[in-house]
Amino acid sequence: MTTALITGANKGIGFEIAKQLGERGITAIVGARDEELGRAAAERLGQPYVRVDVTDPAGVQTAAKWIEQEYGALDILVNNAGITVWQEDARPSVTSADVLRQVYEVNVFGVVTVTNAMLPLLRRSAAGRIVNMSSELGSLTMAMDPETPWWPFNLVAYNSSKTALNMVTVSYAKELLETPIKVNAANPGYCATDLNANTGFRTPAQGASIAVHLATLEADGPSGTYLQDDGPIPW
Ligand code: NAP
C-alpha cells in the first residue's frame, strides 16, 4: 500500500492532488484544518481524513501519531496548504511585517512543522517523496523579468514566502540526498481557486498534475528541483 498525506486537501489544488493520487491506487489522506470540510472532502473522495492545521505543532504531531498507528509509515507528503493575505495595496512599502508573519506562518513555518513531524514516517518508506507547492511568484529570476505576465504581481508577503519555501525545499533535498527521499518544489501555474478569487486560467486539476508527477517519481527521479508541467523553472 502506498500512503500519501496532502495538506489543505479540502478544496482547490490540494483536493485535486488527493483525487489524482487516489486514481493511481494511492491512499490519499485528506489533511485539512476544518474537520467538517475535511471529512466532507474525504468522503467525496472515498479517502481517510486527518486534522492538520499546519500552524498547530501539537496537532500536527497528533496527526503523525495517527498515521503511524493506522499505516505504520508514510510514502508521500504534499505540503500544499498555502495562503495569501488580500491587500488592496501589496507594495512592500505599505505592507507590515505582521502580514509577512501571517503568510510565513502557513507557507513556510507550517511546511517545516509538518515535514519534521512526518519525516520519521517517510524514512520508513522505500521511496519517500516530499512535494512543496511553490509558485512562479517565488522565482527571483522571473520576478525581475518585465517580459513575464507576473511582473505587476509584486506581492511582497506571498512572493517572498514562496522564495523562502524554495530554499526550504533545497535544504531538505540536500540533507536527504543519501536517502531514498526526494524533495521537490512544484509550480501549479495560475489556477482558478479561492486563493485568487477564481481568476486563474488553469483548472485546479491541471495545477495538481505536476505535484502528482513529483509525488510519484521513480527511484532515478530528481531531488531539489523546481518544476512545472513543461519542465524546470528558474529559481
Ligand atoms: P485554496 O483553494 O485557497 O486552498 C488552500 C488550502 O490551504 C485550503 O484547503 C485551506 O484550508 C488550506 N489552509 C490554509 N491555511 C491552512 C492551515 N493553517 N492549515 C492547514 N491548511 C490550511 O488555494 P489553492 O490555489 O488550491 O492553493 C494550494 C497551494 O497552491 C498553495 O500553497 C498555493 O500557494 C499554491 N499555488 C496556487 C496557485 C493558484 O493559482 N491557485 C498558484 C501557485 C501556487 P481552508 O479551506 O480551511 O482555508
Descriptive account of the structure:
By secondary structure, the chain is of the alpha/beta class. The chain has a single domain (3-232), classed as 3-Layer(aba) Sandwich (Rossmann fold). It is 43% helix and 14% strand. Helix 1 (12-23) packs across helix 7 and helix 4 (97-122) packs parallel to helix 6. The chain binds NADP nicotinamide-adenine-dinucleotide phosphate. The site of NADP nicotinamide-adenine-dinucleotide phosphate (NAP) has 32 residues, from helix 1 and helix 4.
Average residue pLDDT: 98
Q: What would CATH call the architecture?
A: 3-Layer(aba) Sandwich
- The string of secondary-structure elements, in order, is EHEHEHEHEHHEHEE
Count up the helices.
7
Structural key phrases:
single chain; 235 residues; alpha/beta; eight-stranded mixed β-sheet; 7 helices; 8 strands; globular
